[in-house]
Automatic annotation (TrEMBL):
Keyword Phosphoprotein among UniProt keywords: no
Record Pfam families: AAA (PF00004), AAA_assoc (PF14363), AAA_lid_At3g28540 (PF25568)
Name of protein: AAA-ATPase
Keywords: ATP-binding, Hydrolase, Magnesium, Nucleotide-binding
Nucleotide-binding among keywords: yes
Acidic residues: compositionally biased ranges: 452-461
GO biological process: response to stress
InterPro entries registered for this protein in UniProt: AAA+_ATPase, AAA_N_dom, At3g28540-like_C, ATPase_AAA_core, ATPase_AAA_CS, Mitochondrial_chaperone_BCS1, P-loop_NTPase
Reaction catalyzed: ATP + H2O = ADP + phosphate + H(+)
């Protein structure tokens, strides 16, 4: 027994051996760095890594980043939608929960993807492991996220050919049946879209418009949603442009909400005043997601979209003045390229909706088909719209005041918003309709007074001209 212990090296001998080995290692590394060029060392390192991966590593990992070629990575988006349905396969004891239901704070919280947590999925007997990872970027506190998808090396081709198709189709199905929509607004300072829950409950069933217009809109939207192969066959971007025009209060915003709820599309609400220049406008377009509505309200007030096209000298003069103000803005050519140029094809299944109170002010180049495919007049209240509003707000189908109110609606210009305001004054049908009748009578009286003033003014001008002659 004593002989065995005598054969064990002492601690000092072991330390001396370790020191000698470390010195030799450092010497060898120094010689290697001095003699062997860097590119050769890197080449050897890569070859060793490949050799190790080929013969010793049994798994393969796909990395799926948020952006791909300066656009949103649709594979990342599909995983982001699909994986919350697989949260039962969490391999760790943590879960991300939250709620944004302002109307029901006590509602059961929703589940979301935790960062750095393994999620297990299975596809045709293949075991798959997903991990959502993130790194901080210069745009603090925003993070760059990406997925790791790991499988056995022998299933790599199967995952590429079949699983990713399954992922995309599953995500598309989930999107078409999503419970809540989002509305985004563009933050100019941070150059990002910020989202909020879209809870506008207007649908085509509750929208007070003429039956023919409702049928036309639904048929056109259905045709667009099924038109992927058609748009591809004719070489056009899969998008649709709508122009909603008419006086304020005629239901343009409600029409947008009805379209969004019918198509189950999120809305990107863009204020043209928040866009710096044409380049910024292109970045904004490419950062929106597919299956969405891009809404640009009051287009005649934002970009250089009105009147005639300017000469080159006028454009240069205006550009110089805008540069001095450091607020270049969007040019008409930039807007046209945004709507129907090469950049408009960066994405698919998108609806672009413009609204304006003054269609006549818009440049004709902006109005042609391909840019604004469908022009929809949101006009003043009609007898049919009136009855719909009364039925909706007062829950009645007939009343003794219907006839005089309908006659006044045909005589004066009143918007659905004005009618709605009067109907909401009281839940009592008699009081509400009497108030509406008085409101319309006052509008008729004012209209007659305005007409009389105009006629008197024209008469005075005529007399003045005769006297001067």
């Amino acid at each position: 027994m004593a002989t065995f212990y005598n054969q064990i090296p002492s601690a000092s001998a072991l330390f001396s051996l370790y020191t000698t080995f470390s010195a030799i290692k450092m010497l060898f590394r120094t010689i290697l760095n001095e003699v062997v060029p860097l590119y050769i060392r890197n080449y050897i390192t890569v070859k060793f890594a490949i050799l190790f991966s080929t013969y010793f590593q049994t798994s393969f990992t796909f990395i799926i980043e948020q952006r791909w070629d300066s656009m949103e990575n649709q594979t990342f988006r599909a995983a982001e939608i699909y994986l919350p349905t697989r949260l039962a396969g969490l391999s760790t004891g943590k879960l991300l929960v939250g709620s944004n239901d302002l109307k029901n704070p006590a509602a059961e919280p929703k589940l979301a993807l935790p960062v750095n947590t393994k999620i297990i999925d299975e596809f045709e007997g293949i075991h798959l492991e997903w991990i959502l990872d993130s790194i901080e970027t210069q745009n603090f506190p925003y993070e760059k996220q990406y997925f790791h998808l790991t499988c056995k090396k022998q299933f790599r081709e199967k995952i590429m050919t079949d699983y990713f198709k399954h992922l995309t189709k599953s995500a598309e199905k989930i999107m078409r049946n999503r419970e809540k929509l989002l509305i985004y607004t563009y933050n100019r300072e941070q150059s990002v879209w910020k989202a909020a829950i879209f809870e506008h409950h207007t649908t085509f069933e509750t929208l007070a418009i003429e039956p023919q217009l409702k049928t036309t809109m639904i048929d056109d939207l259905d045709s667009f949603s099924k038109g992927k192969d058609f748009f591809k066959s004719v070489g056009r971007a899969w998008k649709r442009g709508y122009l909603l025009y008419g006086p304020p209060g005629t239901g343009k915003s409600s029409m947008v909400a009805a379209i969004a709820n019918y198509m189950q599309y999120n809305i990107y609400d863009l204020q043209m005043q928040s866009v710096r220049d044409d380049a910024d406008l292109r970045n904004i377009l490419t950062s929106t997601k597919n299956r969405s509505i891009l809404l640009i309200e009051d287009i005649d007030c934002g970009a250089d979209s009105t009147s005639r096209r300017k000469t080159k000298k006028e454009e240069n003069d205006q550009l110089q003045k805008q540069k001095q103000k450091q607020d270049i803005g969007v040019s008409l050519s930039g807007l046209l390229n945004f709507v129907d140029g090469l950049w408009s094809s960066c994405g698919e299944e998108r609806i672009i909706i413009f609204t304006t109170n003054h269609k006549e002010k818009l440049d004709q180049a902006l109005l042609r088909p391909g840019r604004m495919d469908v022009h929809i007049l949101m006009g003043y209240c009609t007898p049919f719209v009136l009855k719909n509003l009364v039925t909706m707000y007062l829950k009645i189908d007939d009343h003794v005041l219907f006839d005089p109110i309908e006659k006044l609606v045909l005589e004066v210009s009143v918007t659905p918003a004005e009618v709605t305001q009067q109907l909401m004054a009281s839940k009592n049908a008699d009081i509400a309709l009497k108030g509406l009748l008085e409101y319309l009578e006052n509008k008729r009286f004012k209209k007659k007074e305005d007409t009389k003033v105009e006629e008197d003014g024209e008469t005075e001008d005529a007399v003045t001209k005769e006297a001067e002659t």
